[in-house]
Give the backbone structure.
Amino acid sequence: MTIGLVYHPDYLKHDLKIHPENAGRLREIIKILEKKRLMEKLRSISPRRATVEELEYVHRSAYIHKVASLCREGKRRLDADTYISPFSFQVALLAVGGLLSAADAVIQGKVKSALALIRPPGHHAGPGKGMGFCLFNNVAVAARYVQERYHLKRVLIIDWDVHHGNGTQDIFYDDPSVFYVSFHQASLFPGTGLVEERGRGQGKGYNMNFPFPSGSTGKDYLDIFSRVLIPRVREFVPEIIFISAGFDGHKDDPLGGMNLTEEDFGKFTDLIRDMAEDVCEGKIISALEGGYNLRVLPLCILAHLQSLRGE
Ligand SMILES: [Zn+2]
């Protein structure tokens, strides 16, 4: 069955050339997908804009309106790391909405799984705060959306971006219905993601952090995947799996200090795909997060996609 691809040229409108999270990232990815003639092998899913009500599944109303008005007023920064432009609010709605469109396509059986090439990224955005290049938490809104719209009971989010997804962790910290697992570099931005952060109240045990020392390899990750993650996920039995797919753990990435290769991202995907086949008919929705080396990011996406397609 086919794999869905979410993309829209409007994702390029949120841009700042001197910033690592710039539109060139998506341009280079699309270039290689076209060159490898992959675009025609994937089912294109056209993104819609998320509504403010949908953002409110996870974000505070005051924060959403603040971002909208800062963009409208032509402000350039949400914080020191996170730029905005007059287009950014609309692009961010299209990023969240792109993931909701992907969720519709996967759950309605139009595609087996989907990759959403969306920007700005999302996993650092919490209920009332954007940071770390993120305005709204794409994956978190989509996780809530599948619960609201399709009444799914158990959602798994696997986040392998080199940075800890503090926003996603915060949003679901008390919640046993959304299991958040992060693989990241220890002591890197934003500084959260300790092993001891395991969830709270009912949510205890449904937040798992695997901080790795800098220089860790794919073998180190795969060891934890197979020894710890997979058995735990098989107990949880998710009905759908989201991947917060950041590729800044690649050894050549300027922002991370890991030692992963593009092939490693293919191997992580293989393991998740096999597990997804067993527990949720292969339903995976992968959302682009980080990845800032414009030469290797497209290669990582290729490896990830080839594995999603079962090649
Ligand atoms: Zn990152």
Summary: The chain is about 40% helix and 15% strand. The CA atoms of residues 57 and 141 lie 6 Å apart. The first strand starts at residue 3 and ends at 6. The mean pLDDT is 97.
